[in-house]
Amino acid sequence: MNIIPGGRVAIVDLASMRQGEEGRVVRIEGGWGLQRRLEALGVRVGVKIKKVSGHFMRGPVIARMGNTEVAIGWGMARRVMVEVL
Amino acid sequence: MGNGEKGNGGGPMKILLMGNPNVGKSVVFSRLTGAHVIASNYPGTTVEFTKGYMRLKGKRVEVIDVPGTYTLEPTSKAEEVAVDMLKEAKEDPENIVINVVDATNLERNLNLTLQLLKEGIQVIVCLNLWDETKHTGIEIDAKKLEEILGVPVVSTCAISGEGIAELIKRLSEAKSNTYEYDVEERWTEIGRIIEETQKVTHRHHTFLDRLGEASVRPVTGIPIAFAALLASFSIIRFIGESLIGYIFEPIFVGLWKPVMVKLSAILGSGGFIHDILIGKIFLFNIETEEFIKGVVTGKMVAGSTVMVKTITGELVSAEVTIDFVQSMGLLTTGLFVPFAMVLPYIFAFYLVLSFLEDSGYLPRLGVLMDNFMHRLGLHGLSIIPMMLGLGCNVPGALATRVLETRRERFIAATLMAIAVPCMAQIAMVIGLVGKFGILGLGPVFGTLFVVWVLLGIIMDRLLPGESPEIFTEIPPYRIPYAKALLKKLWMRTYGFLKEAVPYVLLGVFIVNILYALHIIELIGRFLSPVVRGLLGLPNEAVAALIMGFLRKDIAIGMLFPLGLTMKQLIVASVILTMYFPCVATFAVLVRELGIKDMLKSTLIMIISALLVGGTLNLILR
Question: Cβ separation of B104 and A71 shorter than 8 Å?
Fold first, then answer.
């Protein structure tokens, strides 16, 4: 597992990313159905993703890929694994 | 050219507008089509789409605005419809798909484009939102893209109309697929195309971009949401009241009333025909400006002035006249309620709602509400059916289709049918209890809101299953395109008139018959323990409850002549919202939920209506 300076693991789930942090999606931990749903809106392995904002109390995560901005429920965001850049 | 038998069945050639949601598809649509636009449901479903017509080389061509879809592997009901419509259009080789593509999101949009090319239908690509590529720092080589895809690519800015003429000119060049690729390698393929055709430089943030981010971050977003909703309600109220006060009421009172007064006299001031058309006539004290009751010597003829002996024994002079709200005739109340009381608010509401929709605010509101809505067993986007329900419960019930699970659709539909009053009803409640100000309106809408929340929490606890998570695109803020917005506003307002006026007239007719046959009295006496005992309303209020099955607006209108106290008006308004949906909503709900679930939902409605009505009767003074 990569460790980036500051001692944080480089691969984190989208929900745990910090606001404003950018990374690349490396894995989606879910079945074909979830992958297909995420893919339709552009969340798929290989894309650059930026966390715009989170919400209190496990609220949805706002993320941006290119010019697409999406809101992803907290539980779903936990399954999107991102390599922080 | 078209073969008469198959495909279009001898009808005109079809042009399908297909593309991802939020790419300006409907703006392209309204640029292409004339004023004559029809909204219809796809056969066998409740998914709405619009179609219109355009002239192409002297021939009438049908243009269909297909529901937005990200992929041809559908994940929702609306996307299934899009796929079915494509399948149908493929049957006739002359039909064309205009694939509207968001130039600022080329990569994601090309997914659908490549899928469309595999379908073997004639395609032309419309690279829309071209103007927005400038500030987003994107450069696309449209020529190159056309070369690669092997179908025409036209860049447009539908809002300003740029490129639309070119698009129409090149429609005949639309072709079916010549582009070969391996389906498994779709994204790699798209990556290759992007590399060859698109250059991204620095993005300049605009004011709308910043506002966009501020309104989804909780700290800034929640105050913005409050401000937006407050502004919306103020605007609706201002427009609604102004239209009534300056246009509709003066027209009815100044022009229509004298005609009705004359007609009343011609029809003999009474009798069956008179009562159906004109309704009851009243005594109006000119000095105190109020309706009075009393004994009149001689015949009451509308338009004349008579001496009235009141209950207290006084003799006062009063004018015999009709009253648009209380008379209950087809030509008086039957027209006044839908046109002069409800229509202005419907118009104002849909103007504001269409603006919120087209500007891209609603998904942001959904995101902000997500946490809260999860407590009600729903997710944030279910706020959209609720908002639509405030206009009319029918489209609200249809919009529950965007929700993923059966459980969610049940909760959303039930909550809406019970606690979300439609604009027709809201307008009438304002007319009825608005004179008490916040003291009257507060308890009505406050109670409904509390019921909405509590019932949601209860259903979330009792129904097995969990609420799925929100997953939605948040489109950038855009300034709505006036022509498309007005078209939508017209379609919705006209839709209201087409649906409401016949039902209101039918309702007024039925009420008159029921009164004439003394049936309402009978039911009133029968239901007296509930209506009088539990709810504290007079037996006559039963007539309004019966009418509420048909139309809620006219039902509330029937409370006017009963001389109810403020408390009774509040109880009656709340009950009329909760106990049962109007027949149009009921029909849609049966289709959406199925008979069994609808019965469950109905049971919840009646029980909660009686509980809440009884409680209000006890605690209000």
Answer: no
Q: Which residue has the higher pLDDT, A30 or B36?
A: A30
B553-579 burial: b if 16+ Cβ within 10 Å, else e: bbbbbbbbbbebeebbbbbbbbbbbbb
**Of B431, B433, B400, residue with least CA distance to B337:** B431
B206: which DSSP letter? P
Query: For residue B550, which of B355, B398, B408, B337 has the smallest C-alpha distance?
Result: B337
**DSSP assignments along B353-374, one per residue:** HHHHHHHTHHHHHHHHHHHHHH
Q: Exposure of B427 by Cβ count < 10 A (0-12 exposed, 13-18 middle, 19+ buried)?
A: buried
**Residue B574 C-alpha, separation from nearest chain A C-alpha, in angstroms:** 33
Taking an 8 Å cut-off on Cβ atoms, the answer to whether B370 and A71 are in contact is yes
The phi and psi torsions of B262 (rounded to 5 degrees) equal -65, -45
Task: State pLDDT tens for residues A35-70.
Answer: 888 988 889 998 999 999 888 788 899 999 988 899
Please tell me if residue A32 touches chain B, with a CB cutoff of 8 Å.
no
Residue of A nearest to B69 (CA): A40
Cross-chain CB nearest to B470 (options A38, A57, A60): A60
Greatest mean pLDDT range, B76-90, B183-197, B210-224, B566-580: B566-580
B322 forms beta bridges with: B281
Give the ipTM of the model, two decimals please: 0.90
Judging contacts by C-beta atoms under 8 Å, the chain A residues touching residue B213 are: 52-53
* Nearest CA distance, B69 vs chain A (angstrom): 9
pTM for the structure as a whole: 0.87
Q: Are B250 and B238 in contact (CB under 8 A)?
A: no
